[in-house]
Inverse folding.
């Protein structure tokens, strides 16, 4: 079973986003005093679609930038951001399908929505962070001044660290890449782990989640996440994962995220 490629993830996110928006518009277009979180979700998914459309050109090699700019967008940041978007979209679509009828939202559906609203808001917070990460990547690639680039790099690093800090699932998925390749821990994960060192109870809980994780256990039962040419293998052997970037890996769209079809409720949107 092959994992999801970066290129397929981008296309699937666009398709999945359209499905989520269509479901949510049955709420906002037909219900008086529709939940504000439904409107917020439509806006977030729409904004992510716009950011993805711009970023896609760079990931697919259709848009050019300088080598120095591309080197500042690390593969780690791309993988964390897209992985977080894919898994969050799966969760959001599952909830909206439970709550939204094809044509309207009745009283019972409103109760369901209220029941899940805290979960929905948590997903939207994660998506907002991933959206901002993509915008920072675009700023790095397109900004006119070095100061803008430097500010965007700092903000991107902080956003990715925060995403890993807040999600056991993301940390486990990133650790599965390290286990697959024998890399040292990635830069963002190293910082997050240092933040946890003084919280022994939480760290023990995370280690248990790691050992129990299907994602981590799947590493030894599949092809490598990264099927590369011999020249790329040689380059990667000399680098840690966090040193790889948009500028150092050709055909980045064919590289894989730590996601498999069984992980997603909406896997039909993606080509595995």
């Amino acid at each position: 079973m092959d994992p999801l490629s970066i290129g397929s993830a981008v296309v699937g996110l666009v398709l999945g986003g359209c499905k989520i928006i269509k479901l949510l518009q049955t709420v906002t277009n037909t219900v008086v005093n529709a939940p504000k979180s439904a409107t917020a979700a439509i806006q977030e998914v729409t904004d992510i679609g716009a950011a993805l459309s711009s970023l896609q050109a760079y990931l697919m090699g259709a848009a050019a930038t300088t080598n120095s700019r591309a080197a500042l967008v690390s593969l780690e940041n791309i993988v964390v951001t897209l992985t977080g978007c894919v898994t969050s979209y799966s969760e959001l679509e599952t909830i909206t399908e439970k709550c939204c009828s094809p044509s309207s939202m009745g009283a019972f559906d409103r109760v369901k929505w209220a029941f899940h609203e805290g979960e929905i808001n948590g997903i939207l917070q994660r998506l907002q962070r991933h959206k901002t990460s993509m915008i920072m990547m675009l700023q790095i690639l397109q900004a006119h001044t070095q100061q803008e680039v430097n500010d965007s790099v700092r903000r991107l690093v902080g956003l990715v660290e925060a995403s890993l800090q807040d999600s056991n699932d993301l940390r486990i998925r990133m650790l599965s890449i390290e286990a697959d390749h024998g890399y040292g821990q990635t830069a963002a994960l190293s910082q997050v782990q240092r933040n946890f060192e003084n919280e022994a109870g939480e760290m023990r809980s995370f280690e248990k989640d790691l050992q129990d994780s299907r994602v981590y256990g799947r590493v030894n039962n599949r092809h490598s996440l990264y099927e590369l040419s011999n020249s790329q293998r040689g380059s990667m052997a000399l680098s840690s994962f966090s040193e790889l970037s948009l500028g150092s890996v050709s055909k980045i769209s064919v590289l894989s995220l730590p996601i498999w079809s069984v992980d997603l409720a909406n896997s039909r949107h993606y080509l595995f």
Remarks:
- The chain has eleven helices and no strands.
- The first helix runs from residue 6 to 28.
- Residues 219-224, 226-239 have pLDDT under 50 and may be disordered.
